[in-house]
């Protein structure tokens, strides 16, 4: 269903189990065009060192027949929407995901979480809101979707959140509301596997039934083709 997986983790994330080469082989074997390497930023326990992100520039664009894009999953660390990567690092990256994690941000009120997401989207380097589906971090969905449209930030639909082994609370019901609002406002989404092992790269099997149920328009999914992905991320090959 997707050409580019926008959310993947390698061994550099500390709790993922495949090398970049293993992920690239899996991506190619599954027929993907490529994937974004979005290892956890330093604030996550066990996350990648800053030097990891600086040095992604040494990677070739293509490995084992799969395009590789340089990214990071950064942590939202407060209710102003600050993240744990600085501008100098992000300037080396092509895709930055901003995500809530209970390990790196305290749980606040609905207004706190809304302000944090709005603040994160005001960061020009942030391209995607990661797994905005956890009921532990409730927020004003219409307001956040509206801001996503205004800032050209993609809303992620996270396959791992929807899996039987997912640990985020209320993801299915939350995605029904999020996707309905995105469709209503014409705001684009991206499908991310959140793979922490090579066999999971490119998986959207838990996303697809809900997209079909809601008759979500294909034109609002940014990573179903390389061209749509490059346009949404403002990347030139």
Question: How does this structure look, described?
Answer:
The protein contains nine helices and eight strands. Strands 1, 2, 3, 4, 5, 6, 7 and 8 form an eight-stranded mixed beta sheet that branches. Helix 4 packs parallel to helix 5. It has one domain: Metal-dependent hydrolases (TIM Barrel, Alpha-Beta Barrel). Strand 6 (126-130), helix 5 and strand 7 (154-158) form a beta-alpha-beta unit. The mean pLDDT is 98. It is 32% helix and 17% strand.
What key phrases describe this protein's structure?
9 helices; alpha/beta; globular; 8 strands; eight-stranded mixed beta sheet
Brief digest:
The protein is of the alpha/beta class. It has a single domain (4-233), classed as TIM Barrel (Alpha-Beta Barrel). It is built from nine helices and eight strands.
CATH homologous superfamily label = Metal-dependent hydrolases
Our Rg estimate from Cα atoms comes to 16 Å
Look up the CATH topology: TIM Barrel
Query: What count of helical segments does DSSP give?
Result: 9
Give the helix proportion (percent range).
25-40%
- The arrangement of helices and strands along the chain is EHEHEEHEHEHEHHEHH
In total, the number of strands is 8
Beta strand %: 15-25%
Can you tell me the CATH class?
Alpha Beta
Number of domains: 1
- N/C terminus separation: 22 Å
Arithmetic mean of pLDDT: 98
The largest β sheet comes out as:
8 strands, mixed
CATH architecture type: Alpha-Beta Barrel
- What's the shape? globular
